[in-house]
């Protein structure tokens, strides 16, 4: 990195393009954050899904989804994230990439509020059983074979433009169940009213 956290993304070529396209003045005095504050930590704690990007020694990028119970991506301190890495398809692309190139990127999205957080950093794997056990969510039925520890270099948030609003199935189901309970109660009340005043309803 150079003098500004945003330089991790705003390379000289990117800055030149911003200048050419007229957006450089907007970003010139706006820097990325370097530490996880309380608001970002709370956002991360509510996520049950994120995307982890890595690249191999030749720079070929790779993005993989990571999912688990809310809060499975842990904030260890203001510059460190970590999570238990569950067994999957046994391709080991992410782990292989990190062995050759520790640069990594985390992308978190909340479709319900149309908010996103982007985090640049460096990551490493750990086979320490104590670390893995500490990161394993209680009661989650999965097997973790390693942990991934992510050191934050910079983070940023974006506007909500072009993000479709979507809702988690569990949240929708809960809302529908609440509405159905109200409907059931109203229908029961209507049935009682009809039974008590049949003649009045017929007139």
Which labels suit this protein?
7 helices, 29% strand, alpha+beta, 2 domains, seven-stranded antiparallel sheet, Pnp Oxidase, Chain A, single chain, 203 residues, 7 strands
Structural class: alpha+beta
Hey, roughly how much beta strand do the residues contain? 25-35%
- The Cα radius of gyration reads 24 Å
Biggest sheet overview: 7 strands, antiparallel
User: What distance lies between the first and last C-alpha atoms, to the nearest angstrom?
Assistant: 82 Å
Q: What's the name of the CATH homologous superfamily of the largest domain?
A: Electron Transport, Fmn-binding Protein, Chain A
Percent range for helical residues?
25-40%
The CATH architecture term of the largest domain is: Roll
**CATH hierarchy class name of the largest domain:** Mainly Beta
Low-confidence regions: none
Tally of helical runs: 7
Number of domains: 2
Pattern of helices and strands: HHHEEEEHEEHEHH
Short description, anyone?
The protein is of the alpha+beta class.
Question: Explain this structure to me?
Answer:
- The protein has 203 residues and is an alpha+beta fold.
- It has two domains: 32-157, Roll (Pnp Oxidase, Chain A); 169-202.
- The protein has helices at residues 12-21, 24-28, 38-45, 93-100, 129-135, 169-196, 198-202; strands at 49-55, 61-67, 74-77, 80-86, 103-110, 115-126, 144-157.
- Strands 2-1-5-6-7-4-3 form a seven-stranded antiparallel beta sheet.
- β3 and β4 (80-86) form a beta hairpin.
- The longest helix has 28 residues, at 169-196.
- The relative contact order is 0.15.
